[in-house]
Specification:
The complex is a heterodimer of chains A (about 300) and B (about 350). In chain A, about 70% of the residues lie in helices and about 0% in strands. Chain A is mainly α and about 300 residues long. Chain A has a single domain, classed as MetI-like fold (Orthogonal Bundle), CATH 1.10.3720. The longest helix of chain B is centred in the C-terminal third of the chain and has 39 residues, at about 245-280. Chain B is globular, with a radius of gyration of 24 Å. Classes of the chains: A mainly alpha (about 300), B mainly alpha (about 350). The interface of A and B includes residues 155, 269 and 275 of A.
């Protein structure tokens, strides 16, 4: 055996290199102990399941009117009662899960992508580009978010895709700001300087070297952002500016029920409970994620 | 300090110009033609064309914007498509009703929020803490308009305790002096008018307050937990001060900074929430009017109302910043670091 091999074997034996625990594993371990966050996660799983298979589980057709069954209260046949057109509210809620969840997630994805690109460019290059982008963000932040969403819907008109854009646009500035500040602090690090010296392109440095390090704070914001987005769609639907009826989107269901608040309260009670539960779930899970990622709260 | 305030005020101008451009472009370029909404779908083409001409909608967009801005600077925000009345007058007559609702809500939210926050922080990890935080969690998770409807069903229909629509009963009449129902009913000198308005205000104000209350209580709790761990709290206790005094004078006083920030910032978003609350309760404010005008494409009203709310919003945020300097002597704006 050569000396070199011997030395290597010795080194391996003495310095048992421990694999660092993955970020994901650390997070999961912290999350597991948080009962509220787990509850949120379970509800989210249920929501996703219902979004995928809601139409199959639903006991009745969600959009077909049936005047013979109209305006019924809660019963064994219709758990949550029926609406003025005789549609089963329980079935409508199940079938509508996909719309509300889709709008929430798609809107956040929309603002996340645009906000990340804008924030990265502003934070990385600084100077004039930064000033221009951030001033535009300031302008958007000068309008209360629900009001901006209402104005956008007034301009675009009703529709699923338009609701996604309207709600997505509203939270672009928030993501842009988070990403910008993370990038600004990250770019001072030596590994960025090293990546530059090695001749990496700016885009590669941003997406391969900097963003992965700030991804955790973005994920937390995005999770909490979904709950805000669900609330915003509900508000638009309630005002009659969201998705067109008879689509059983939860907010639109509330809008339909607006005129029957006192005569048929079950029409508005149940969709509202489901919206609140969905928002609560994303809030709990988002809070749990934030705590799990925050080394200070890890003991 | 004065120099700093002036500088900050000047910085608001480009932001507001930007807001006006965003809103204007959205409503004039992207929105559907309002003529068919205003005149009805079956109006003939010539009538629609002449209506567009009369509203200046056929002018180039740049000229339309210029007309809007030059008018707005002089306090002329144009006329409503429907009533031909001055948009500025229409908005201003409803504005006080929105502000009084927002002020009532911010008072309720601050008082309840701080009380809940302090109690939950002091009783950390007890059932009281869990209960308080659960209520806050509900507060940030429930759609406020839905909460409003639930309160209407409970207190209006089931219990019959409180009125659920409008700012006063239909048969109650008093002069509109300030536009604020609270003040006008006081001015009228008839105490029954005042109690009637107050009675009508309870549910909408509480509904609007609920979300902010939740935010304030969460903020208060975490801020209090931070200060309660400080050495000077231990010192105060060691001196033998009563626990209540330690909490009120030593802990809360120092925890107040972030709480004031949150309250200030929330006041602006209350104006957004007022849109929904007013719609639910038929409260005769600017928010309800704005929604009605969005639904019938009354764009002069929409763009002016949004711009006005943006002005209030940014000025409020500036005030919160300045308030810092008074609350925290360590902050000195506009002075270079030594």
């Amino acid at each position: 055996m050569s000396y070199v091999k011997q030395a290597n074997a010795l080194a391996e034996e003495t310095v048992k290199i421990e694999k660092p625990e993955s970020q994901l594993k650390i997070m999961w371990d912290a999350l597991k102990k948080n009962k509220a966050a787990l509850f949120g996660l379970i509800v989210i799983f249920i929501l996703v399941f219902v979004a995928l298979f809601g139409d199959l589980i639903a006991p009745y057709n969600a959009t077909e009117t049936n005047m013979a069954d109209a305006k019924q209260g809660m019963s064994a046949e219709h758990w949550f009662g029926t609406d003025v057109h005789g549609r089963d509210i329980f079935s409508r809620i199940l079938s509508g899960t996909k719309y509300s969840l889709l709008i929430g997630i798609a809107a956040v994805a929309f603002s996340l992508i645009i906000g990340t690109v804008l924030g990265s460019v502003a934070g990385y290059f600084g100077g004039k580009i930064d000033a221009v982008i951030m001033r535009i963000m300031d302008m958007m932040l000068a309008i209360p978010s629900i009001l901006l969403a209402i104005t956008l819907m007034a301009a675009f008109g009703q529709g699923l895709d338009k609701a996604i854009i309207a709600i997505g646009v509203v939270s672009i500035p928030e993501f842009a700001r988070i990403v910008r500040s993370s990038i600004m602090s990250a770019k001072e690090n030596d590994y960025v300087a090293a990546a530059k010296v090695l001749g990496n392109s700016n885009a590669r440095i941003i997406f391969r070297h900097i963003l992965p390090n700030v991804v955790s704070s973005i994920v937390v914001r995005a999770t909490l952002g979904i709950s805000t987005a669900i609330l915003d769609i509900a508000a638009l639907g309630f005002l009659g500016l969201g998705v067109k009826p008879p689509t059983p989107e939860w907010g639109t269901m509330l809008g339909d029920a607006k005129s029957y608040i006192l005569s048929l309260p079950h029409m508005i009670i149940f969709p509202g409970i489901v919206i609140s539960l969905a928002v609560l779930a994303f809030n709990l899970f988002g809070d749990g994620l934030r705590d799990a990622l925050d080394p200070k709260s890890r003991s | 300090m004065l120099k700093y305030i002036v500088k900050r005020l000047l910085m608001l101008i480009p932001v507001l110009i930007g807001v006006s451009i965003i809103v204007f472009v959205l409503l004039r370029v992207f929105a559907a033609d309002p003529a068919s909404v205003v005149l009805g779908e079956h109006a003939d083409a010539a009538a629609m064309e002449s209506w567009r001409d009369s509203q200046g909608l056929n002018d180039p967009i740049i000229k339309q914007y210029w007309d809007f801005v030059t008018g707005a600077v002089q306090g002329d925000f144009g006329e409503s498509y429907y009533t031909q009345t001055s948009v500025f007058t229409e908005i201003m007559s409803r504005f006080p009703a929105t502000i009084e609702l927002a002020i009532a809500a911010i008072i309720i939210a601050s008082v309840l929020g701080i009380v809940i926050g302090v109690i939950t922080a002091v009783k950390k990890n007890t059932i009281v803490d869990n209960l308080g935080m659960f209520v806050s969690l509900i507060g940030i998770s429930v759609p406020i308009f839905w909460l409003g409807v639930m309160l209407q069903i409970l207190f209006g229909k089931t219990l019959g305790w409180l009125p659920i629509q409008g700012a006063s009963d239909a048969d109650i009449l008093f002069d509109k002096v300030t536009g604020s129902y609270f003040l006008d009913s006081l001015i009228s000198g008839d105490i029954s008018n005042f109690t009637n308005v107050l009675w009508h205000m309870i549910l909408p104000a509480f509904t609007l307050a609920f979300y902010t209350m939740a935010i304030v209580s969460r903020m208060t709790r975490s801020s209090m937990l931070d200060t309660l761990n400080q050495d000077y709290i231990r010192t105060a206790r060691a001196k033998g001060l009563a626990e209540g005094r330690v909490i009120r004078h030593h802990a809360l006083r120092n925890a107040l900074m972030p709480i004031v920030t949150v309250i200030g910032l929330q006041f602006g978003s209350l104006l957004g929430g007022a849109v929904l609350t007013e719609t639910v309760y038929g409260w005769p404010g600017m928010g309800k009017y704005l929604v009605e005008c969005v639904q019938k494409s009354d764009f002069p009203v929409v763009q002016s109302a949004v711009l006005l709310i943006a002005v209030i919003f940014v000025v409020l945020n500036l005030l919160v910043d300045l308030l810092y300097a008074f609350l925290d002597p360590r902050i000195k704006y506009g002075r270079k670091e030594a």
